């Protein structure tokens, strides 16, 4: 297995609540690298990127994303596997733009999130940039972000899908519907089970692509169980079910990167969400899945 290079992105300026900026260092302190090592992964914490001094939120987010894109591209080009740890989810523009720079063809993406994150400045009620990264990656939104690593979209809609959506506004839903992006709502996850939905999502992300990635916003999980997230939304997924689904990723040669975002340690309860974040990463990236502890509801 490739060495796992963990890159933190301490992004908080994309959100109204900046608590997620402390997420990467909190997960580092919780032992993310050691957790992967003890389960058979070859992992090291490579770097945590912090916002540079700047004048406004757009500049701060764009600058951090640009540096993150170059760091992720360098990790991939060097033969290692990037695990990006946010920060608010605006960091995704940097993560997947970086993968795009190295991927030799179209990039697929499975976006696991309670929200669509597909607003543009014209549709967003809050103007928060962490509500816009998927739209930017699809080529819609702030020019500084849509053109972060060059002209043209990072992602094509036929190679993208969302899982767990249950909180969104009409404007972003209209954009994704117009583009034809497949959305597996939380209602569908409840009806069919996360395992079946995730298999369908992997088929979409791998069909006609040179490789794919998975971006996990921890608010996809039920906040009653995992409260330490930036923007909680009720009625989410159970962590154990998502853990089992992510085991499908281990050993897949087409998986190019993994991203875990929106951990807010200031809202966590006794470290429950931090432990779940470590469990999700281990399920996706290591062979020792400790199957016995992954029981529970789907």
Which descriptors would you attach to this protein?
298 residues, alpha/beta, Arginase, Chain A, eight-stranded parallel beta sheet, 8 strands, globular
Radius of gyration, in Å, reads: 17 Å
Q: What is the CATH H-level superfamily?
A: Ureohydrolase domain
**Content of β-strand:** 15-25%
The neighbouring-strand order within the major sheet is 2-1-3-8-7-4-5-6
Please give the alpha-carbon distance between the first and last residues: 29 Å
Q: Care to count the β-strands?
A: 8
- Named at the architecture level, the CATH assignment is 3-Layer(aba) Sandwich
CATH topology: Arginase, Chain A
Q: Regarding CATH, which class?
A: Alpha Beta
| pLDDT averaged residue by residue | 95
Order of helices and strands: EHHEHEHEHHEHEHHEHEH
Structural class: alpha/beta
Low-confidence stretches: 291-298
Structure description:
This protein has 298 residues and is of the alpha/beta class. It has a single domain, classed as 3-Layer(aba) Sandwich (Arginase, Chain A), CATH 3.40.800.10. Strands 2-1-3-8-7-4-5-6 form an eight-stranded parallel β-sheet, with helices on both faces. Helix 7 links the parallel strand 5 and strand 6. It is globular and about 45 Å long. The two termini are 29 Å apart.
